[in-house]
Amino acid sequence: xxxxxARSLAxxxxxxxxxxxxxxxxPSGAMSADPAPRKVPxxxxxxxxxxSVDADASAVGIEILRKGGNAVDAAVATAAALGVTxxxxxxxxxxxxxxxxxxKSRTVRTIDGRETAPLTADSxxxxxxxxxxxxxxxxxxxxxxxxxxxxxxxxxxxxxWGTKRLGTLLKPAERLARDGFTVDDTFRSQTASNExxxxxxxxxxxxxxxxxxxxxxxxxxxNPDLARTYEELARKGVGALYRGKLARDIVDTVNKPPVDPxxxxxxxxxxxxxxxxxxxxxxRQAPTKTSYRGLGVYSMAPSSSGGTTVGEAxxxxxxxxxxxxxxxxxxxxxxxASRIAFADRGRWVGDxxxxxxxxxxxLSQSYADSRECLIKxxxxxxxxxxxxxxxxxxxxxxxxxxxxxxxxxENTTHLTVADKWGNVVSYTLTIEQTGGSxxxxxxxxxxxxxxxxxxxxxxxxxxxxxxxxxxxxxxxRSSMSPTIVLDAQGKPVVALGSPGGASIITTVxxxxxxxxxxxxxxxxxxxAPRASQRNQTTTELEPGLWNGESRAGLEAIGHGFRLNPxxxxxxxxxxxxxxxxxxxxxxxxxGGGSAMVVRPTS
Length: 602
Hints:
There is one protein chain. The chain has helices at 55-66, 71-85, 135-139, 150-161, 166-179, 185-198, 202-208, 224-236, 239-242, 245-255, 274-279, 306-317, 327-348, 359-362, 365-372, 503-516, 522-527, 543-546, 550-557, and strands spanning 42-52, 95-102, 107-113, 127-128, 131-132, 181-182, 220-221, 283-285, 288-292, 295-299, 413-419, 424-430, 483-486, 492-497, 531-532, 539-541, 561-563, 571-575, 581-585, 594-600. By secondary structure, the chain is an alpha+beta fold.
């Protein structure tokens, strides 16, 4: 059933509906004078490319590429800048997953920089009197904070594949934090949605509610504390965050959250220790791989469920010619494949250091075929679908009890980078939900994650093993799906990823099928209205599909829907012939993204 892609991917550079004039960063000396480079969602040109949600951050990445840095160097510098301009989505208080393509060896490698639970944690981490605590109470607490993995990820990537020192790569972000960036509507609205809980923590309120008020659109937002923290990491190395005074500051903040005594808020203390920070390691590991339409699709293996779930869904869709399907049939098949893959994710995927995860079996075509035959063109599977058994696949059979999809915060961020040598990075990083835990480390300028809330608080069914319960030093299951697709010669075709909690998986899957199967230019595949089915009774639809003609056809089959104003915020890069790259980002979501290349062409 393997079929080669039946057209040249090189022609899918830009959309006929989106004018691409190319976009490049301003000269490096102009960054301070122009703290708000113009956002452009698609750019084409030579010398490398960067796509992120933020123009300042993309400009930093381009600056590094111009100065001879490679894709890994630029990705680290871009991520550090996003920690300044997108502090509610990511930062050195969080973690993520780093996927790297090495052009010389034509291989894909990954780093698991996921946060870890304290070494004292057990399966009852979020239980009080035998019952799970309220989710909101866990979110804004020290209890939900995991050991940060982002700084260790940066150093591990640079040690393995980079060409620049971390101190050099932190300088542009340090400058951005010191001199400030221009507040836009998205930053203000995200601050507003967190205002009530931010006011519970004086250090958070002082930083993000300057003068006691929401930041004004068009004003300059500065973070001198973060600039000093970056300067310290540049001078001492990332070990300063895992040992020493900064480590003590993090531990003290987690274990005794600095709450405004007048707020009356009960911020549950965590149990993080200096031993937890000193023991943390970012894990270099092999990627997941599946073959789709003759292409190799590489992503993150567990502790992320992204690679296994996207890969299984693609294998399920392999039997269907999506290029010729009507929109209704395309969406129906995509939704049902997502539903089934999420059923298996919930039963089988957790941290492989603690769980026996059947990664190879979940990604086998024979298992996907045994699950694909559940899909009918004239009917809808009833959710929640029960999982299958990938070690003993039986055609059209589900076994056991369905596990619900745990909530994951949606305000992660993703960046994608390529360099002039052909190296590529797809990197998703996060502090969990918008604003993370809401707790700022005093005097340090960054928010702590609430990533441990990605664990199951209690088993959905005591009779069924839950692979995502907390444990000592365990990584909570993630949905982050940074992905790189290679052709039959081992050269990159496209790389992409997205934020969005569990909807990351469906966003990446839908964008891939839109680009590879439906023939959409990359920027249009990213912009296309999204549907997200995660083994739930109803499927989320963005307004473009909610109000579209296909909805009635899908409802006639039996689909049920609920409206979601915005799903994900993807970025990607595409390789074209002769060393040219396409960088693509959102046209509208999160205020639009920022695509840049070193040397633009029209």
